Amino acid sequence: xxxxxxxxxxxxxxxxHRTILAYVTVGALLFFAFLLATFPYADTLSGVLAPMGLRxxxxxxxxxxxxxxxxxxxxxxxxxxxRQLFKxxxxxxxxxxxxxxxxxxxVSISADAYGGSFYLHARRSGDATTLTFHGASLHLENYPExxxxxxxxRAILSGDGDAYVTRNNLLADHGVFHVAAAGAxxxxxxxxxxxxxxxxxxxxxxxxxxxxxxxVVSHGGDLSISGRGVIELxxxxxxxxxxxxFQLATTPAGRATFGFLLNFxxxxxxxxxxxxxxxLAYPRLS
Length: 286
Known about the structure:
Helix content: 10-25%
Largest sheet: 15 strands, antiparallel
Structural class: alpha+beta
Radius of gyration: 25 Å
């Protein structure tokens, strides 16, 4: 049978069964509309956040056409309310269709936040949560947790990654992350001239309780850094052990402005690598 004959046969089938096909189409549309309208958004959100010890609060909720819900005044924080991790004026929540077919309800979340955009796909996987995320043009200076601890850093952050996260089993957690920060700078003292860090890229993976920095590189600032290392995570995060080795080089402009700080280093830049050890709470530089 030639191609024109095949198309003619299809047209004849459609004409002969158009009423039945119309009912099937309408029925399918109504089924998916009902499925989306009755999707347990609140329960699913609570389910994917619970293994990570997180909770989501909002000011109000509304329907988002053609499907999904819109949440306004959103705050994501720890279940004890002590740490705010994310905040957005408005975000859109839609069902994750593949997760629904697999029998593990999940959600896709998109939001404008911190001057940029953020996308997250999350689904419950037993007692854990599986995440895929992507962020673009997030302004770190707008992130309240950094300001709260006195970290005066500015940068436009973008990145993506995948993670499998449990609540109390660090050895089971795993993930891969890629991060890029443009135009980064850090103000060492209030009122001082910011130290330009330039553009930074980092590749990180998490496995068996170890956060491994495969590579971190900066360029275009007052100093440049190239390093790698491991952070052995502990249930109490400040107790996590550091073992990070990096090379440091400074530009003439950096030395002219911040040369006095170099005197506090164990040895001059370019004389050899530095080792950051100790814990997150009490790091040591050698």
